[in-house]
Structures are given as C-alpha cells and as structure tokens.
From TrEMBL:
Keyword Signal applies: yes
InterPro entries assigned to the protein according to its UniProt record, in alphabetical order: Beta-barrel_RND_2, BSH_CzcB-like, RND_pump_MFP, YknX-like_C
Descriptive protein name: Putative Co/Zn/Cd efflux system membrane fusion protein
Gene Ontology, cellular component aspect: efflux pump complex
Keyword Signal included in the entry's annotation: yes
Gene Ontology molecular function, alphabetical: efflux transmembrane transporter activity
Domain CusB-like beta-barrel: 223-294
Homology family: Belongs to the membrane fusion protein (MFP) (TC 8.A.1) family.
Originating species: Hyalangium minutum
Amino acid sequence: MTSRSLTRFLLLGSLASAAGLGCSEARANKAELPPSAATTGQATLGVRAAPPMDKLQGDVARVTGQIRSRLEATLSSPATGTIDKLLVNVGDKVKKGAPLMVLDSSNLFIAVDQAEAARDMAKAGLDSANIELTRTKQLFEGGSAPQAILDKVQAGQRQASAAFAQADAAVRSAQEMLRDQTLRAPFDGVVTAKMKNIGDTVSLVPATPIFTLTNVEDLEVRLPVPESMAGALKEGMQIHGRVIPGNTDFEATVRTVGVVVDGQSRTVEVLADVTGERKGVLRPGSLAELDFSRSEALAGLFLPSQALLKDEKGSYVFVVEDGRLARRDVQALPVTPRFAQVRGGLQPSDKVVVEGAASLREGLAVSVVQ
C-alpha cells in the first residue's frame, strides 16, 4: 500500500469513529431527557356543557285551557203555568232585572183585585172601629158608659185591626204570585239557549229550564297544569294568553291554584281571570294557550332535568372550571317534566354539564364539545 493510500485509510477510520461516537452520545442524551407534559398528562374526556337558561322557552311553559264565563246560569220557571210571552231570543243582550218570559197571569190579576177589595173592606171596618173606640172612651171618661162597654169596643177595634193586617198580607201574597209569573235576568248577559216556546206548560217542581244566560264579559280560563309546574304558580301572577285558533291575545291573572292532583292526567286545575285590554273577541268555550314563561314567578335560571344530580347532601350539578369538573350545590324546583328552576350555586355564565352527568365525578379532566 502506498503512503498516500495509507494516509487516506487512516483519515476515513478516524471520521467513522467520530461519527459513531457522536451517534452514541446523541442516543444517550435523548434517553436522559425528561418526559414531556404531553406524554404524562391525563387524557381529557369530552362533555356537553352549556350555561343555564335565564328563562323558559315558550314551547315548554305553555298550557292549553278553555275560556268560560264566571257567570252562567240555566234559568227555570219561577212558577207553574203556561208560557204566555217570550220576550227575548238567543243572542239577545239583557241587563240584570230585565223580563225574559211571562206566564199566563189572567187568574192572578183577578186574585190581586179580589185581595185588594177585601183589604179595602177591612180598612173600612178598622176605620169604623177606631171611631167607635174614640167615642166610647169619651163617654166612659164622662161617666156615661160602663167599663164593660169600653172593653167590648176595644176588643172590636183589635179584631178589626187584625182583619186589616190579614187582608193586607193577602194582597202582598197575591202580588208576589203575580210577580212570579215573570222570569227576570239575574245578571247582565247574553241569552245563549232557549228551551221552551209560547204555549208550553212549565212547572216550579221539578224545575223546568227555559233559558241559558251567560255573562260574556266576566271570563276566566280553566287550565289543567302539570303537577310539576303547579308548584311554581302563585295567586295573582300575570300570564299571557292567546285564543287558538284566531290568535286573539289577552292577559290573565291567576285566581286559584288547585290543591288536588287529578289521578289520571296528573294535572292541577288552575283558574285565571281574563283581565286588561282584549285585542279581539273572546268567546266562552274557546280554547286558549297560556304562556307562563313571561311570568316573574318563573324568572331565574333553568336547566334540563337530566343535568341535575342528587345525593344525601341534596341536589347538585357539575360545572367545567379550568378543564376539570367542579360540584355546585343547588336548590332545584321542577317546573315541567323536562326542566327545573335552580337557585343558589350557579352564575349565568357557568358551563353546566347537561348530558351524562351521572357517570362523571368531581375533579375529572374534561373538555367541552359541541
């Protein structure tokens, strides 16, 4: 081997040794590096979370009920007899006290005349007895009449007075019977039904219905409210209503909240009075949809029922804080089968786990997914 070839060989060997040493040091240095946070960090779990709602949506806080009159009556005949006059028809508006029907009263007019004549006779007898008593007292005081005569005249005067009182009562009774021949409206309203015609015979017992009278101004709404929502309703709360179909808007005020739950429908009867200005015609019997979501009684924060958990400490939810789950204790009031009002422990901006919360635990690393 020549001198130049030997020199080149030694140089290549040195370079190879240096390269091998460098690779070994690199591998050693790589093995000595500390593990990164990415390789040692705990894997996060994706959860669905959302802030609580500040009000219920209308579609989950609406109840359908029926509009009805607070004053409706089936009017029966006040006496037994034959209908002589029908003074109103279906659809007529009447005032309280207005005559609606008159029975044949010819015999009663005669009875009143006879009673008044008998009273006049009794009055004349009483006047005569009073005059006789005055004269006898004067004679008795002058010594011209004995005590027996005075006693007899006084007794006659008392009898005449009683006879007049009896005759006067007979007149009032006959007049009352005559008044009973006329059926009158007990309140302002509209005639909504007529069951009899002129010439029909009606009776007091059993009662014969003749008209149905309805007050179309004093209205209420009967609502079968789910028992889960009834607890949030209070007397006096304002609610918005709309007639369906027709879209006539109105306002109502809760008057009573029932105390009994219907065993079949699981609802509580709520009565609300129609109040305020009406933007259209409201008819008893119409269906109406009442929106409770605008009521102050249902103001606050709301969550889906599935977001709520419960243990021996009470109700709570999980919120996402700095990538981990934190427990928040709350007071929960169910208002619909799917939503509950929550108080305490939450802010409107909190991200509350709304799905699968029952399988999670506090402190778990999570990330919010859509």
